[in-house]
Amino acid sequence: MYEFSVPMALTDFIPVFLFGVAAVLMQRDLYSKMPKYAFACFAAGCVNVFLAGFLKAAWKLLYAMNVCDFHVLNTMFLPVQSIGLLLTGFGLILMLTAGKRAALAAAPPVFAGTFVFIAMMVAGLGAMCACLSVLAAKIKKKGLIVIFALTFLCYMAMGYLASREGNSAAMNWAEQGVNTLGQALLLFGVVKLHRAGLRELKLE
Predict the structure, then answer these.
(1) Which residue of 23, 35, 93, 130 has the lowest C-beta tally within 10 Å?
(2) pLDDT for the residue 2
């Protein structure tokens, strides 16, 4: 049994849409700087991350309203988000290394077990935050490096809370609070990059 309430389930949509806005803004600003293969990778990753969060929030809402326990929406969250973050980070790395003859990897194999997905999530998120920090430094907004570092820490804290045993309301509220803070920090950093002229930045 899960201690989900309707307000809690609705609150879970907030970080999802915060990420969605940040993702759209990043795609608009970075489109002209990315090779087509890099942008395809990045955009696909953003879609995966958004859908993973949206479907999990939808599962919580259906459960809280006593409609059904469509648990597959919850169980697919980790693999879909992990692959999404990995693609997102990889797309940004491809953008920053374009023209430097970086080797490209093919599609990853299918794995069972959560450890591989957690490793993919950490690697993808770390790459995304690191690449955004590089862009912040290039655009002379080094203070945003702290913002993206805090975003990464919030994601790690959310992952830790999600891995804890128990489905209490207090734990779910804590997880949602940390997730919302992390997505708000990401959106704040992306908006600051946008206003500083990220779209006009020339990558060398």
Answers:
(1) 35
(2) 79
Q: What's the gap between Cα 175 and its chain centre? A: 15
At residue 105, the pLDDT reads 45
Please check whether residue 41 lies inside any domain of the structure. Answer: yes
Asked, for residue 1, whether it belongs to a domain, the answer is no
192 CB neighbour count, 10 Å cutoff: 16
Which residues, at least 6 apart from 29, have a Cβ–Cβ distance to it below 8 Å? 193, 194, 198, 199
Q: Comparing C-alpha atoms, which of 87, 105, 92, 4 is closest to residue 50?
A: 87
Q: Give every CB contact of residue 68 below 8 A, 6+ residues apart in sequence.
A: 62
User: What is the Cα–Cα distance from 175 to 177, expressed in whole angstroms?
Assistant: 5
Report phi then psi at 138, rounded to 5.
-65, -30
Determine, yes or no, domain membership for 158: yes
Task: Give helix 114-138 / helix 77-97 axis angle, nearest 10°.
Answer: 40
Question: In what helix (H) or strand (E) does residue 144 lie, and over which residues does it extend?
Answer: helix 143-163
Chain segment 15-58, per-residue pLDDT in tens: 999 999 999 999 999 999 999 999 999 999 999 999 999 999 99
**Calpha distance 69→40 (Å, rounded):** 34
In a domain, 39, yes or no: yes
